Amino acid sequence: MLHILGEKNSLFNQFLSELRDEEVQLDRMRFRRNLERIGEIFAYELSKELKYEEKKVTTPLGVATMNLLSEQPVIATILRAGLPFHQGFLNYFDQADNGFISAYRKYEKNEKFDIRIDYMSCPELENRVLVLNDVMLASGLSVVKAYKELLSHGKPSHIHVAAVLASVEGVELLKKSLPSKNVSLWIGAIDDELTAKSYIVPGLGDAGDLAYGTKI
Question: What CATH number is associated with residue 22?
């Protein structure tokens, strides 16, 4: 199932427009904060699709019956741009277990690249709900590689993949590469163009550099 948050009018589009705006991008703290706020919106929308159960809550004046989450999801994020996005999810799923994946592009001489996983830290995933976050879903290869690596920690009952921006090609690759029965895609907006170097256009640039500074 594909959910595109930017198709509906909401404050989400204000935060996304500021992430894209080259003038606003000069303020790194604001860029990180907008990623965090967008993560919170994603978490709220995604929470509507999770399982709930009735629980009794004792108030000073009586007992209220509330529908509360049956279990917290596991939130796994691809570093480094994903850190503030991850924090937004964690602000809402504040008791969730967490996973972190360090993935990078290994370029060849012909400018083709492969995705390498440097590091992964993750709890047990067997029969649990997994939320896999990547700010920019360009080629989609990072998410596919991370998903395959995460399976070594167990098979999740359901996988929610969340990305602020995606390319058409990236979304199509995920549809082909991930199991269709128990995967939901949550995308902020889908841009039409993907360059030969796998950059999304118009996109927003390098989210990791904008959040934390340029790298060597």
Answer: 3.40.50.2020
Q: Which domain holds residue 84?
A: 2-50+76-212
DSSP the chain: -EEEGGGS-SHHHHHHHHHH-TTGGG-HHHHHHHHHHHHHHHHHHHHTTS-EEEEEEEETTEEEEEEEESSPPEEEEEETTHHHHHHHHHHHSTT-EEEEEEEEEEE-TTS-EEEEEEEEE----TT-EEEEE-SEESSSHHHHHHHHHHGGG---SEEEEEEEEEEHHHHHHHHHHS-STTEEEEEEEEESEE-TT--EESS-S-HHHHHH----
pLDDT band at 115 (very low <50, low <70, confident <90, very high): confident
Q: What is the pLDDT of residues 126-179, one digit of tens each?
A: 999 999 999 999 999 999 999 999 999 999 999 999 999 999 999 999 999 998
Domain assignment present for 59: no
Q: What is the pTM of this model?
A: 0.92
Q: Is residue 56 part of a domain?
A: no
In a domain, 27, yes or no: yes
Domains of the chain: total: 1
Chain segment 2-41, per-residue pLDDT in tens: 999 999 999 999 999 999 999 999 999 999 999 999 999 9
Residue 94 belongs to some domain of the structure: yes
